[in-house]
Write a structure and sequence with these properties.
CATH architecture: Alpha-Beta Barrel
Order of helices and strands: EHEHEHEHHEHEHEHEHH
CATH superfamily: Aldolase class I
Structural class: alpha/beta
InterPro entries: AIPM/Hcit_synth_CS, Aldolase_TIM, NifV/FrbC, PYR_CT
Oligomer: single chain
Distance between the termini: 28 Å
Number of helices: 10
Number of strands: 8
Family: Belongs to the alpha-IPM synthase/homocitrate synthase family.
Shape: globular
Domain Pyruvate carboxyltransferase: 5-257
Radius of gyration: 17 Å
Protein name: Homocitrate synthase
GO molecular function: acyltransferase activity, acyl groups converted into alkyl on transfer
Strand order of the largest sheet: 1-2-3-4-5-6-7-8
CATH topology: TIM Barrel
Length: 277
Amino acid sequence: MMRPFTIVDTTLRDGEQAPGVAFTWREKVTIARLLDRLGVDQIEAGTPAMGEVEQHAIRAIASSGLRCRVTTWNRLLPGDIRASLACGVRDIHISGPVSDLQIRYKLGKSRRWVLDRLREALRFALDNGCRVAVGAEDASRAGHRFLVEYALLAREMGVRRLRYADTVGVLEPLAVFERITRLKEELGDMEIEFHGHNDFGLALANTVAALKAGAACVDTTVCGLGERAGNASLEELVRAMQGIYQVKMRLNTAILPVLTRFVTRAAGRGRARTACG
């Protein structure tokens, strides 16, 4: 039996990183409301540090009275968290790099720098009453020992969810299953959230593998929008769970065609290539 799991939809954050996609703030609010009507558990509404236009949209979404959790994406910087607080959001995701490729060659920093910044950011967020999840950026190319050290620091400070990000989409399902299983064994009661990319067409398969390994949360985007080749498709995940695994999901699936058509138009794409047509 597949365990109950949480869907974190990041269409408004990662989905908007797809080439040529730029939603208006009104479109973002409409997408958030449709996702809420569908019944997703959590919406990642954007990145407040991007500026006033993004902040305006996030404030509008956060004040819309949605039933789902509304979260924001933040770097390991108190300034990012301040921007989230100014939008009326205290449910935040803090992301830091964990692979040496990201830490040393992209940022020119050290592992110690990452841990120090994580500690500083978490202390600031928790002191301001935030509910925090921590992201491990490029986890699929990270050394396992450092990834665990990073996660344990977050857990020791009170964080109960780690996002395992296959940032450049290099994993395949068996590897995902093995890695998530191992992480769960080492992190105990800490929830694992899986974030897959579709560079080799495996985002959905990897997401299902993560669920089979016991991931508590998975990330999706409508129509599979996202950076480069995209992310795991929300509608394909829903149909796979229902059609292959007979998972009963508390979703109003009648909203799916409306949602996918709206996002497709807003993204400037052609007819949606989705599981619901």
